[in-house]
Q: What sequence folds into this?
């Protein structure tokens, strides 16, 4: 039987990380609930055993059900019936299998019928689901909206919605509008208080809403009359059972066709305010978007894994000129780099998940009691890392999903272009990943301050100070050399930007990507030190692959005259034909 957990040692090894003990300690609060719930762990080993058992179950559902239904879901897709979304038959079967396996509400507290599992396990499940069907991950994975309610919602809202999510309710985040895509500050969907009905009423249109007809929706709306910016926006939770919202249409998309991307019309739709007015975008959506970007990271890594495995399997089976095509150096090199990219992206994904987990748990604890000075410092440290690493992992993993989808088709040749193989679906599904929840360009904008202000360099130095196996010393030496080049690039860009504003923005992606190459290199070298049989080859191949990328970034950044800012702006004067 196919099992996407037991067949992937790379995922399994994430439980061996040294920070895992701290994560369990924070999540379980000293195992205080072991007498209250028969499924609460008794100690650290019992917790890890529970995580592994549930991940084994999740891996089986993904391998046997989700992956098996992927092609039929892609072909059938959802449809609008009586102003509501009706999922494809395979999607309904997936949801039923997930629910039967008890995988809903994975990270929610037990008092809301959740499993109280770490974020790390939720990311694992998302990766495995995406390996089976990236579109379905957009439906199940959005239950992380419930985490936003758990963090910012009132006790009444938590009691109403969180057990429902644990029971299988689907979620959505209704943010974008026809005239407000990446610029969420321009959202104009209106929220007005009705004295007569004793509730807020939503009116307007939302567009490009993933799983838009979900049962629980977080909605960004304008509460302050006369405002046109982020300060007039608030966050609401909407219950589908209350009515007032119609699905105008489902977008006809290139990929992730099983996931309904909806245009919604709100007409006096009743909703409940989450947290404080005017903090919708500034505080709550920023938290929600960071969680969503980590989810897209998991989706992208799962897509990378699917693409790599399809290509590897075909390369072993396909014979040309008397031998399997994997025996041709051009093919074996391509596959080796594909594997290094998957492994590297996954290492970055779970490192980020650990950072997010620790600061999120400390935030929850701070609402229960005062943190110690050491805990406050720990929370501050991991918050900075999470803020920097989240856009970095979204950038790298989504770009690699696109690259590996492309490369998989190349390995299969003409067969990969046909619908007889999953590669063409994987390729189509991957394309959105570098676009939604913030394009790659916006991830660079989010990450660049972490480069120029030293957050990444500080963490890189921490990685450099670790001990590495003798076999990894050549890799570490290269990483240290690239770090010195990075310092030169940052100094050059900072100085040139003072002379000509916009120079830093022009070279931001080169700086951010260089940071990513170095960090992934250290993560793989660390893994290769602990598990050489699993990671040593990929660490060396990664270093070979990244060396050319860093050299190119360094050369272009250091040789670029400040006049390049004006040069590349000449296109602004071009008129579209």
A:
């Amino acid at each position: 039987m196919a099992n996407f957990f037991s067949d992937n040692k790379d995922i399994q090894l994430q439980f061996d990380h040294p920070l895992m003990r701290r994560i369990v300690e924070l999540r379980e609060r000293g195992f205080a609930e072991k007498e209250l719930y028969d499924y609460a762990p008794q100690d650290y080993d019992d917790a890890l055993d529970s995580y592994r058992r549930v991940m084994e179950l999740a891996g089986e559902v993904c391998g046997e059900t989700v992956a098996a239904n992927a092609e039929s879901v892609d072909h059938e897709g959802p449809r609008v019936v009586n102003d509501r979304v009706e999922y494809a038959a395979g999607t309904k079967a997936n949801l039923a299998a997930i629910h039967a396996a008890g995988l809903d509400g994975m990270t929610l507290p037990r008092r809301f019928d959740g499993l109280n599992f770490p974020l790390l396990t939720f990311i694992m499940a998302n990766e495995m689901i995406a390996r089976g069907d990236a579109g379905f991950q957009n439906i199940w994975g959005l239950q992380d909206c419930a985490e936003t309610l758990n963090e910012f919602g009132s006790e009444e809202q938590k009691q109403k919605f969180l057990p429902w999510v644990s029971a299988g309710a689907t979620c959505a985040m209704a943010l974008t509008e026809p005239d407000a895509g990446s610029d969420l500050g321009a959202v104009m969907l209106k929220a007005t208080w009705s004295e007569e009905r004793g509730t807020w009423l939503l009116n307007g249109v939302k567009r490009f809403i993933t799983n838009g007809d979900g049962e629980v929706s977080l909605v960004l709306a304008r509460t302050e009359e006369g405002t046109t910016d982020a300060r007039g926006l608030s966050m609401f939770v909407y219950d589908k059972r209350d009515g007032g919202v119609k699905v105008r249409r489902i977008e006809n998309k290139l990929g992730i066709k099983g996931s309904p991307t909806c245009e919604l019309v709100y007409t006096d739709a009743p909703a409940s305010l989450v947290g404080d007015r005017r903090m919708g975008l500034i505080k709550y959506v920023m938290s929600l978007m960071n969680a969503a970007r980590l989810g897209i990271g998991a989706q992208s890594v799962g897509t990378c894994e699917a693409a790599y495995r399809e290509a590897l399997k075909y390369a072993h089976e396909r014979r040309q000129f008397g031998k399997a095509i994997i025996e041709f150096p051009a093919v074996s090199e391509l596959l080796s780099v594909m594997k290094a990219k998957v492994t590297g992206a996954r290492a970055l994904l779970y490192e980020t998940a650990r950072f997010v987990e620790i600061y999120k748990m400390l935030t929850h604890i701070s609402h229960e009691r005062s943190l110690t000075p050491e805990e406050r410092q720990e929370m501050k440290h991991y918050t900075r890392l999470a803020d920097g690493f989240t856009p970095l992992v979204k950038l790298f993993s989504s770009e690699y999903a696109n690259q590996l989808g492309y490369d998989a088709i190349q390995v299969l040749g003409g067969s990969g272009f046909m619908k007889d193989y999953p590669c063409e679906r994987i390729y189509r599904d991957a394309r959105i990943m570098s676009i939604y929840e913030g394009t790659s360009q916006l991830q660079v904008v989010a990450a660049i301050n972490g480069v120029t202000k030293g957050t990444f360099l500080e963490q890189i130095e921490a990685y450099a100070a670790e001990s590495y196996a003798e076999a990894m010393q050549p890799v570490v030496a290269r990483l240290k050399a690239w770090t010195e080049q990075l310092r030169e690039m940052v100094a050059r860009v900072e100085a040139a930007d003072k002379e000509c504003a916009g120079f830093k923005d022009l070279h931001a992606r080169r700086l951010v990507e260089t940071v990513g190459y170095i960090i992934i290199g250290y993560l793989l070298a660390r893994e290769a030190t602990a598990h050489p049989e699993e990671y040593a080859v990929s660490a060396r191949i990664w270093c070979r692959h990244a060396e050319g990328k860093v050299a190119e970034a360094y050369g272009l950044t250091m040789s670029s005259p400040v006049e390049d800012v004006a040069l590349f702006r000449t296109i602004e004067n071009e008129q579209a034909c």
